[in-house]
Each structure stands twice: as C-alpha cells, then as structure tokens.
Design brief:
With 463 residues, this protein is α/β, with parallel strands linked by helices. It has 4 domains: 4-133, Response regulator (Rossmann fold), CATH 3.40.50.2300; 139-311, Rossmann fold (3-Layer(aba) Sandwich), CATH 3.40.50; 316-390, Helicase, Ruva Protein, domain 3, CATH 1.10.8.60; 410-462. The protein has 20 helices and 16 strands. It has helices at 12-24, 35-44, 61-71, 86-94, 107-135, 148-162, 178-187, 206-214, 231-234, 250-262, 288-294, 299-305, 321-337, 346-354, 360-374, 387-390, 410-424, 429-435, 440-449, 458-462; strands at 4-8, 28-32, 49-53, 76-81, 99-102, 167-171, 196-200, 215-216, 228-229, 239-243, 264-265, 274-275, 279-284, 309-311, 343-344, 379-380. A 5-stranded parallel beta sheet has the order 2-1-3-4-5, with helices on both faces. It has a 5-stranded parallel beta sheet with strand order 7-10-13-6-14. A two-stranded antiparallel ribbon has the order 8-9. A hairpin with an 8-residue loop joins strand 11 (264-265) and strand 12 (274-275). Helix 6 (148-162) runs parallel beside helix 7 (178-187), helix 13 crosses helix 15 (360-374) and helix 18 (429-435) packs across helix 19. It binds adenosine-5'-triphosphate (ATP) and magnesium ion. Adenosine-5'-triphosphate binds next to helix 7 and helix 15.
C-alpha cells in the first residue's frame, strides 16, 4: 500500500513541486493550502505523514500540529520552515513533530526524513498492535469460573491490582492459575504499560539467580565482562513476578527482603544504590507457613509477603467451574485444531466434574486437548478420557453397562445375572452369592422369586 502524505503549504508552487516529487517516489499525495483545509483532510482520511509549513494564512502552524497530534497521535508531522526560526522548530519538536526541514527544501534530505518518519509510524503501529494483542490474554476476564471461590479471588485481585500494594503473594496448588493471575494483576493495573518481568526461583543456582535479579557491574566476578542490568532494575515502574518463591535460598531471601523494605538495591559489585519503584508479585505452590516452621523460609520475609495474600483454591473445591473450563478449552482447541467444537456428553461431563484434578486446571486443559485429538464424532465421550478419570469409584462411578436408549426391564436384567452366576458356579449358591455380592439369604430369595431353582437341580441348591 502506498504511503499517504499530506502537504500543507500556502504557496502553490511549493505544493505542486512537492506533490510531483512525492508521487514519483510512490506516495499518495493530498495537498492543503491552509490550516482549516489541512485539519479537514486529516479528518477525512488519516495520512501517514504530514509535511507542514509553519506559516499559514489562517491558523498558526503550531496550533495545527497540536490538533493533528490530538486527533491522530501516530501521524508523523514534518515541519517545514522558511526562515531559520530554530525556536519554533524546537517548540514543534517538543509537541511531537517528527523532524523539521528548512526551506528551500532539499529533496534528497526530504526523502530520507520521509522514509524515517514512515518507518517510525509503522513501528509505532506494530508496537500498539502487539501491546493490544499480547496484553489481552492476561485480563481478569480471561480467568474462567463462576464458582463463589473463584469470584472471590477475582474480586480481591481486582482490588489489589488497583491498589498501591507493592507486594502481593499468590498461593495455590500447581496448575491453579497463579501465572495467569499474576499477569492479570499487572496488565489491569496502572503499571500495565510498563515491563512485566518474571523469573522462577527454582532450579537456578543461587549465584545465577542473584545476578539475574540484581544485575552486576563489570568485573564483579570472573565472567562479568560487561555491566548488566538485573530484572529488578528492568522492572522499574512495572511488576516483577517471582515464581516459586518458596525455593529461594535463605541468603537471597534476606537480600530480597531488604529490597522490599528499602525500594533500593545495588548491582553485584556496585557501590551506588539504585532506587526502584515496582510491584513484587510472588507465587508459591507450597505452604510457606510450614516452610517457616521448618526453618527453610525466613519468617520476616514471610510476614512481609503475606500482608496481601491471594489464595487460589484447588479445582476440586470449585467443581462448578469444571464444565465451564472444559467447554472453554474445547472451544480453544477447536480453534487451534481447526475443527468444530465437539459436544460434551453428559456422561463425560459427569466424570470430569467428579474427578479430583490433582494437577488442577492445567491437567484439565491437557485432558481436553487429548480428548479433542481422539474424538471423531462431534461428541466428547467417556472413552476419550484417560483411565484415571473413567475408573473413578466413589463419588460418581463410570457406567458398568450402558443403558440402551430403548430402556430395559430391571428385573429381567437381575434375573439374567442371577442365572449366569448360578451357571458359572454350577449351582453352588455360596459361590454364586459371592459373585453377586449378596448374602446367601438374599440370593436364595431371588432364586425363588425368579423360579431359577429347578433347572439347576435341587441337591446343589440346598447347600
Ligand atoms: N481460571 C482459569 N481460566 C482459564 N484458564 C486457566 C484458569 N486457571 C488456569 N488456567 C490455565 O491453566 C494452565 C495452568 O495455569 P498456570 O500456569 O497459571 O498455573 P500455576 O498455578 O502457575 O501452576 P504452577 O504452580 O505449576 O506454576 C494455564 O494454561 C492457564 O492458562
Ligand atoms: Mg506457575
């Protein structure tokens, strides 16, 4: 698509010559001879770049610049100024003009400036697009659930997010959505446009984690060939997410506590304090309280962190959310796999709801993904679920025999099973009763009721 350029100048000759040049280099050009016409043109169709003469008959060029920027902040305005009025040009730059060219216009100069301005505009649009599409998945409404417990969690998180709280602790079993919540806390807060930095405190050696967090000066240790900023510094004005905080070593815990209290720190090997303004969101799937009792987690840091605690309950304590989440993931994977979302059969729904989900939402998501790969008939059935879910006893057992749609006569089925049991045990009532989990008396009663005694021979039936 050609770039759109609006040329604003009151001198016809200048408009004409600029138009010629720009059209030749592939631009789509519109011209305006005064301020009003320029603003009308921007309103009609947004240009990519405006070449704006500062001296116009009706409106002050600075005024026009201001109005264009208000309407369309991404439009790049290049100022043209006839007299070397550096002060006005500086003022224009301060108000967001991209650059200025002095008249008479040097066309080579114009081309370079124009190309750069267009590139800047494209980058800005790309950044804006990325910001919109990337932060969108992390809003609170992306946290699916209608149960009381999850609604309480979201309500509390909203309050915390909008508050000035600088430390937040998220507790919850693995897979309950701590990451999701930490991101929502950031992307729905005033800090949303600032960085969100995250690091897992697990599985990184202490020294490495420390330099990741605090950064280092050149020569702070053997490998420190250059100065490096740490995450604490990079998260300035934003949020730092410390995942699995329970795994942080006691030495680092002490240093972190210091940062939380003083809002300042030093790079490794550094001598000057660096002030930071950030929110620290820490997450753990362990009971930090017991870690404190066991002496692996510092009590003072624990008290500091737990002031604002959000606890996400495990999925088994909010079973109403299971069907909702299941359908959410069905829709998600149907988009991903490009196939229509299957219906969730009542039987599968019942099994999913009854299961205890030790891996919580993550496990449910994986189960649905797998089921979507297996199913081919447009309906998600128990056969598509892993055995640990279908072999559930207790709460809601999987069906032993499928009930035909036409229905059955229960007594006939019972009679048939009693007959089979007697056949298999050659009429031995003790053994047959055991097969059916009945007492001998209960069996005897049925044998009589169904008239099954005779065919098996009376002798054996008595024993
Ligand atoms: N309420 C929810 N709604 C939608 N998706 C969810 C919800 N809770 C969790 N998820 C999804 O489940 C998966 C696991 O969530 P997440 O990574 O946030 O869990 P976690 O608590 O950080 O787990 P871990 O302790 O293992 O790090 C992710 O794909 C996440 O998007
Ligand atoms: Mg996590």
């Amino acid at each position: 698509m050609p770039s759109r350029v609006l040329v604003v100048d009151d001198e016809r000759l200048i408009r004409w010559s600029l138009e010629q040049t720009l059209v030749k280099s592939g631009c789509e050009v519109e011209t305006a001879e005064n301020g009003e016409a320029a603003l009308a043109a921007v309103r009609r169709e947004v240009p990519d770049v405006v070449l704006l003469d500062l001296r116009l008959p009706d409106l002050d060029g600075i005024q026009i610049l201001r109005q264009i920027k208000d309407m369309q902040p991404n439009v790049q305005v290049i100022i043209m100024t006839a007299y070397a009025d550096i002060n006005t040009a500086v003022e224009a730059m301060r108000l967001g003009a991209y650059d200025y060219l002095s008249k008479p216009i040097d066309f080579e100069n114009l081309e370079v400036t124009l190309r750069n301005a267009l590139e800047t505009r494209q980058l800005r649009e790309k950044v804006e697009y990325l910001r919109e599409t990337h932060s969108y998945p992390f809003h609170f409404d992306r946290i699916i659930g209608m149960s009381r417990p999850i609604r309480d969690v979201i309500a509390l998180a909203r309050k915390v997010s909008a508050s000035g709280a600088t430390t937040v602790l998220i507790q919850g079993e693995s897979g309950t959505g701590k990451d999701l919540l930490a991101k929502a806390l950031h992307y729905e807060s005033e800090r949303a446009d600032e960085p969100f930095m995250e690091i897992a405190c697990t599985a990184i050696p202490e020294a490495l984690l420390e330099s990741e967090l605090f950064g280092h000066e050149r020569g702070a240790f053997t490998d420190a060939k250059a100065q490096k900023k740490g995450l604490l510094e990079l998260a300035h004005r934003g949020t730092i997410f410390l995942d699995e905080i329970g795994d942080m070593t006691p030495g680092l815990q002490a240093k972190l506590l210091h940062v939380l209290e003083e809002h300042r720190f030093r790079r490794l090997g550094g001598t000057k304090d660096i002030a930071v303004d950030m929110r620290v969101v820490a997450a753990t799937n362990k009971e930090l309280r017991s870690a404190v009792d066991e002496g692996t987690f510092r009590k003072d840091l624990y008290y500091r962190l737990q002031v604002v605690t959000i606890t996400i309950p495990p999925l088994r304590e909010r079973r109403e959310d299971i069907p909702l989440l299941a359908r959410h993931f069905l829709a998600h994977f149907s988009r991903e796999f490009k196939k229509p979302p299957p219906r969730l059969s009542p039987e599968a729904e019942r099994l999913l709801t009854a299961y205890d989900w030790p891996g919580n939402v993550r496990e449910l998501r994986n189960v649905i993904e797998r089921a979507m790969i297996l199913e081919e008939t447009g309906e998600l059935l128990p056969v598509h679920l892993p055995s640990e879910i279908t072999r559930l006893g207790g709460v809601a057992p999987a069906p032993v025999f499928m009930l035909p749609r036409t229905g059955i006569v229960l007594e006939e089925v019972e009679r048939d099973f009693v007959r089979q049991a007697l056949e298999q045990t050659r009429g031995n009532q003790t053994h047959a009763a055991r097969l059916l989990h009945l007492t001998r008396d209960e069996l005897r009663y049925r044998v009589k009721k169904f008239g099954l005694g005779r065919s098996n021979g009376d002798d054996e039936l008595v024993n």
